[in-house]
Amino acid sequence: MLGPVILAASRSDRMRRLISAAPVTKRVVDRFIPGETVDGVLPIVRELTDNGLELTMDVVGEDITTPEQAEAARDAYLELIDRLKPLELGERAEMSVKLSMFGQALPGGHELALANVRPVVEAAAEIGTTVTLDAEDHTTLDSMFAIHEELRKDVPGTGCVIQAYLFRTEEDARRLAAAGSRVRLVKGAYKEPAEVAYQQKHEIDKAYVRILRTLMEGEGYPMIGSHDPRLIAIAQELARTAGRKLDEYEFQMLYGIRSEEHLRLAAEGHRMRVYTAYGTDWYGYFMRRLAEKPANLRFFVRSMITKG
Fold first, then answer.
1. Which has the higher per-residue pLDDT, 1 or 102?
2. Annotated catalytic residue: which of 31, 182, 184, 288?
3. Do the Cβ atoms of 73 and 83 come closer than 8 Å?
4. What is the structure's pLDDT at 291?
5. How far apart are CA 59 and CA 35, in angstroms?
6. Contact, 193 vs 7, CB < 8 A?
7. How far apart are alpha carbons 141 and 287 in whole angstroms?
8. In sequence order, which residues have a C-beta less than 8 Å from that of residue 80 and are 6 or more positions away?
9. Distances from the Cα of 27 to the Cαs of 31, 81, 87, 219, 308, in angstroms?
10. Where does the signal peptide begin and end (predicted)?
11. 3-class secondary structure for the chain?
12. Mean pLDDT confidence for 87-113
């Protein structure tokens, strides 16, 4: 399987330099990351919302090594919120954050990340939108869930992400499927050991369906993070069986992947949210997109061969 190899490359400084220097890289990266600055991405926000789509916006960057960098990440999100305010999009443009960007891995990281993310969550609430805490590798999750619980005391709409490939997630889903919760379910995009995660696609898919059923039958708001046509169809059936209306759950897909499906689901009346990342520190995000789906890797290699 190429996925683990690509994920290993995502942590290699040598591979980072090699791929970043390739002439074709920017053209391919632009497929997944439509801008490096707020000014560069705002036209995409307008285009997507004009087409009936919603967004969750991510300022990319995870290699935080100092408290000052964590504060800079906080300030980047606060700038984004300030620029979104006059657009009056409300929850049609929410934000996703990785707590690693807010200093979670630094000494005293749990408290540091909470202190940095809190003003972002509060500022988002002031303009009528929300923040979702992304899931990262399994060693960070207890901290993430504790921060999520703390933030929800003052901003109940704060969401979180759970990953179907982890053994723990079915229990997490039962706990989180409560009234007022917002939970995004994804398959998972980090290299995890066999002791904590399913390794085979069919096992992950079956776990995804079991967990999604728990969320649909619960009292919270499920967010289906998948591009898999079969899982999307199953999600629609689970929603019907659970008696959910179209505005009581949503689909989420990545910018640049299956864009026609985004529009199709929105045209059918579904809430369809596009995960839209921007920023200059794109390498780790880009490599995980390649690892998630062989078609993404083929697209990159073909582009290097034909245009490099």
1. 102
2. 184
3. no
4. 64
5. 10
6. no
7. 21
8. 38, 57, 59, 95
9. 7, 28, 29, 43, 10
10. none
11. CHHHHHHHHCCCHHHHHHHHHCCCHHHHHHHHCCCCCHHHHHHHHHHHHHCCCEEEEEECCCCCCCHHHHHHHHHHHHHHHHHHHHHCCHHHEEEEECHHHHCCCCCCHHHHHHHHHHHHHHHHHHCCCCEEECCCCHHHHHHHHHHHHHHHCCCCCCEEEEECCECCHHHHHHHHCCCCCEEEEECCCCCCCCCCECCCHHHHHHHHHHHHHHHHHCCCEEEEECCCHHHHHHHHHHHHHCCCCHHHCEEEEECCCCHHHHHHHHHCCCCEEEEEEECCCCHHHHHHHHHHCHHHHHHHHHHHHHHC
12. 97
Do 44 and 276 contact (CB within 8 A), yes or no? yes
Dump pLDDT digits (tens) for 212-251. Answer: 999 999 999 999 999 999 999 999 999 999 999 999 999 9
Which pair of structure tokens corresponds to residue 276?
């839209």
Average pLDDT of the chain? 88
Clarify whether 230 is annotated catalytic. Answer: no
Residue among 42, 135, 134, 132 at smallest CA distance from 89:
42
- The residue with tokens 């899982």 is 231
Mean pLDDT calculated for residue range 103-126 = 98
pLDDT at 304: 44
pLDDT at 190: 85
Instruction: Indicate which residue of 58, 134, 172, 205 is catalytic.
Output: 134
- The values of phi and psi at residue 50, to 5°, are -65, -25
Residue with tokens 């330099």, as numbered in its chain: 17
